[in-house]
Amino acid sequence: MVFLWFGNFMTGMGFSMTMPFLPLFLQTLGSFNKWQLNLLSGTAFAITFLAKAIVSPFWGKLADQYGRKPMCLRASLGMTFTITLCGLAPNVWVLIGLRAIQGCFSGYINNANAIIAASVPVEKSGKAMGTLATGNVVGTLLGPLLGGVLAGMFGYRSSFLVTGAMMLAVFLLTLFFVHEEFAPVTKAEMVPTKQIFKQMAYPRLIWGLFITTMVIQAANMSITSFISLLVASMVKNQAQVAFAAGVVSSLPGVVTLIASPILGDLSDRVGAEKVLLVGLVMAVICFIPMSLIHNIWQLGFLRALLGVSDAALLPAIQALMTRYVPKAGFGRIFSYNQSFQAMGSVSGPMLGSIVASVFNYRAVFLMTALLEGLNVFVLLPGTRDVWRKATQKVTKKATV
């Protein structure tokens, strides 16, 4: 658990060290107008996750056959090379190509989650997944700050080079210190994916969780793809843009770091599906006023408040899948969830770029609020199945 936490920490830090500043890095690779910059930024963000969405089911099948640790090693080593090469890219097209290759090899956090999900008691899954999530959150929190300092002192390329070194450290930590008890399964012995879904108590809930993961990621990534440009429009001293963007990007992580274990424990007691629904409603409440902001302080406050919602959402989804997915299908089901998450990462930046270009940056917040609001109604049928069966059990016990 400890070394997987550190693996998630460094993976999250490496990701967030480069992502908020990608549009600013693109500006150094050519001369682009606003429309071109928005479109290229969205493409550079989305291409990694498009590749991930396509290949994740393949890696998930291998994870169920050979174990999740080999997948963590594959992901960390692949990202070591691709992210390092991104820092050496001579032009925007080489950068976009490298980010596509990066997507084909990513997936460390997803497989780390599957390792923990398969090893902890179901009744403690919420707290375990919430605690593991803090590793990614802490890394995501510190990443923009460190990335901003590196970008200001040594240029934007330095963030990619340092991230590549960090992913090499993740590979070595996982190789020598992470142990997984897993017996390889032959293709003939593997339970078919269709059978996995038939074995689930609440298949409609699982599909709802897939869609929820996609919507959450689309909402978050639609903002991340342009947040540095939005901050640049609010900061008078342009020399401080990189640092200010790093601070604003990291603010939700401060609250999420504190709230994730608390909400994870709460989900074990009251039900992860309830915590998830409340988190979605709170996200809508946060995004709507973001469309009315006038200065960076208002943006910072609302993003900090959004951290409570973030602390409830993804850990609750992981806890629900841990509880209701058969262990024989963890690799494939978690990989499908990763594919939906990647699809959100594809659609989010593209939608954000289009809305920002046609209207303005603030209109993107209204779009994300609408997405999260609609998702509540998509998730309700699956959660009703859980509540209905829980009510039937209580009634049966009372009758007996």
TrEMBL record:
The chain crosses the membrane at residues 6-25, 37-55, 75-96, 133-154, 160-178, 205-235, 241-263, 275-294, 365-383. InterPro entries: MFS, MFS_dom, MFS_sugar_transport-like, MFS_trans_sf, Tet-R_TetA/multi-R_MdtG-like. PROSITE patterns: MFS (PS50850). Keywords: Cell membrane, Membrane, Transmembrane, Transmembrane helix, Transport. GO terms for cellular component: plasma membrane. GO terms for molecular function: transmembrane transporter activity. Pfam families: MFS_1, Sugar_tr. It is a multi-pass membrane protein. Residues 1-384 form the Major facilitator superfamily (MFS) profile domain. It is found in: Cell membrane. PANTHER family: MULTIDRUG RESISTANCE PROTEIN MDTG. This is Drug H(+) antiporter. The lineage of its organism: Bacteria, Bacillati, Bacillota, Bacilli, Lactobacillales.
